[in-house]
Specification:
alpha/beta
Amino acid sequence: MQMSSEQLMRAYRAMSTIREFEERVHKEFATGQIPGFVHLYAGEEASAVGVCMQLTERDHIASTHRGHGHAIAKGCDVTAMMKEIFGRQGGLCKGKGGSMHIADISKGMLGANGIVGGGPPLACGAALAAKVRRTNDVAVAFFGDGGFNQGTTLESMNLAAVYALPVFFVLEDNGYAESTASAWSIGGHNPVRRAEGFGIPGNRVDGHDFFAVHRAAREAVERIRAGGGPQFLHIEFTRYYGHFEGDQMTYRLPGEVAEERNLLDSLKFMRARLIGSGLVPAAELDRIEAEVQNLIETALHAAKDARPPDAADLLTDVYKTY
């Protein structure tokens, strides 16, 4: 199915927003104004956008500690996200969750998660609810190559297969689980075959190619909505920054990141393809990039101007009352 120029521009805008958001957070973190830990998604944009473009607000996603890209792709408010990262009032979680706990249930974003492999069980819960209610909704579990080796993820895959849950398991393999190479740490060295061991159909794509991700994700989500049960996608790409902000990345070769930024950039690939094919003029993409820069700049100023949570806020949102 060919995408319209409007859809292509929407995708490019979302990917540009993720990239610009992460680049600015990287700069601001170095000033010491951002509390807590931050894990950046830059370099992985095609994955979040390619997958989330298949979803509606009724569908749910469960994210990871590297969750900014997923949140933006799912439609979370960028200004409220920036406020949350700065720990300010008006943040998506009232400034009390920070980078690793951004969530917006109204958008189907179940939350970033500081627990490695903590998202798949949540996605299974959302999928089970959708199946019982017969809503035809889909739940997506994003997890990294490190999370793929966690029992929570494998148990979730087994549960989803046994109950034929509408879950889309998305392995975002950026090459390293913190500092451990996924090429060494994943037994069998073939994640798709591991998924097939549970009876879950799988596929592998180049995560630098938005169109490949979009196509594979569309086919998987369509199968899920048609009653085909859980699906699996192994997306391979690279991250431009360390596991966390402050990571010296001594486990990566000298010049490795610079080379990947130059040769393996999903935004560069997409821009070249859109212009080269005549689908979207260069001027239109320039306009989108300028608007995105203004959006992030505005969000940043709003976050810095906002107040921290009040002392009384510490005692709210601690327990859920049913």
